[in-house]
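Justification of resources, computational component.

The compute hours requested in this renewal are based largely on the per-chain cost of generating structure records like the one below. Each record pairs the submitted sequence with a full structure-token output. That output is archived, and it is also reused by downstream analysis tasks.
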Amino acid sequence: MCLGIPMKIVELNYPMGICEADGLKRKVNLQLLPKDEIKSGDYVIVHVGFAIQKLSPQEAQETLNFLKELAQHA
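The structure output for this chain reads:
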């Protein structure tokens, strides 16, 4: 099973960036998203090192909460 994880862009140097979720930072390729539509502080779904979609902060938090809850029951 593959998952896309919501992460916050904390450093942006298009086409690459550093994204963070729950204290974990990763280098992420952002080139699948238009350069003029993303900025530092935005949330994106990261899948296998690529940002594949922009999310609202609410959507990102809801998804992260769901994933944490799911992990507790695993």
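The beta strands are 5-13, 16-21, 24-29, 43-47, 50-55. The mean pLDDT is 95.
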